[in-house]
Amino acid sequence: MLAVSRNQESNMADAGWVRVAGVADVAEGQVHAVRVGDREVALYHLPGGDFRATDNVCTHEYALLSDGWLEDGCIECPLHAARFDVKTGKALCAPAESNLQVFEVKVEGGDLLLKV
């Protein structure tokens, strides 16, 4: 287990980084939903240990992308099949016209940190 001192935790928070999950919580090829403050965030574990994060709510209509399908670096909304590139947040097809917000993710030890 990673031990983080209060000073280290404070430094991470000051820099805008927040621990959102453990690496083991997000299996490769899967999506994991987390809440950061009032924001719903989707964490993606892409092949090769690449972790990405976007807003978890579809820009077309309210649906959680973490309930959708992750394939080839794209997430498909479970409601109307809008697709987004999880690396850039770009809306790839109708009915979505707006891109998703993306967040920086870094791995520290066994932890996934999100820049907010």
- Major β-sheet, in short? 4 strands, antiparallel
What CATH architecture label applies? 3-layer Sandwich
- List the helices and strands in order: HEEEEEEEEEE
Radius of gyration, whole Å: 14 Å
In the CATH hierarchy, what is the class? Mainly Beta
Tell me about this structure.
- With 116 residues, the protein is mainly beta.
- It has one domain (6-115): 3-layer Sandwich (Rieske Iron-sulfur Protein), CATH 2.102.10.10.
- The protein is 8% helix and 40% strand.
- The protein contains 1 helix and 10 strands, in the order αββββββββββ.
- A 4-stranded antiparallel β-sheet has the order 2-3-4-8, with no helix packed on it. It has a 3-stranded antiparallel β-sheet with strand order 1-10-9.
- Strand 9 (105-108) and strand 10 form a beta hairpin.
- The longest helix has 9 residues, at 6-14.
What would a concise description of this structure say?
With 116 residues, the protein is mainly beta.
